[in-house]
Structures are given as C-alpha cells and as structure tokens.
Amino acid sequence: MSSSGHGHTPAAWTGVIISFIGFCVSGAFIVLGNVPGFWAGIVLIGLGAVAGGLMRQAGMGQEPRRAKSAAPAQAQPQEG
C-alpha cells in the first residue's frame, strides 16, 4: 500500500489539514448555534481545497499517472 504514494505530498497534507480545521470550526459553531461561525468553517474547507490545488500546480503535489502503454487494451475471450 505504501508504494502507491497516495497523498504523501505537501500539497495533499496542507489541503487536508486546512479542510479538517474548517470542518472542526464548522462543527463547533453549528453546535453552538452560531450561523456566521458555521459559514466561516465552510469557507475554510473551500480554502483548503484551493490551497492544495495551488500547491499541486506549483509542483508540490503528486504527478498524474500516465498509462503504461499507448496501445488500447485487447479484449480477452472468456472461458466458460
């Protein structure tokens, strides 16, 4: 599982941490009944996604996976 490299980049960690803080803020303020605080948490969740995306574009994210072969996959007959 560690060979997949899923999310082990500064961009992924930053985006998730900011979004998690926004989730916690939003959850706390919804329990307290504070509507502006709830929406501030929602804004933080969106900012986490934006920050992670910008960091990925800046080269701090995982490279997109490319297909190993350019040839289309051939259909294999099924044995039945």
Shape: elongated
Strand content: under 5%
* Secondary structure: number of strands: 0
User: What low-confidence regions span 5 or more consecutive residues with pLDDT below 50?
Assistant: none
Largest sheet: none
Total number of helical segments? 2
Distance between the termini: 33 Å
Order of helices and strands: HH
**Oligomer description:** single chain
What class would the helix/strand composition place it in?
mainly alpha
Helix content: 55-70%
Radius of gyration: 20 Å
Describe the secondary-structure layout.
Blueprint (H helix, E strand, L loop, with lengths): L9 H23 L2 H26 L20
Helix pairs in contact: 1-2
Account of the 3D structure:
The protein has helices at residues 10-32, 35-60. 61% of the residues lie in helices and 0% in strands. The chain is an all-alpha fold and 80 residues long. The two termini are 33 Å apart. The longest helix has 26 residues, at 35-60. It has two helices and no strands.
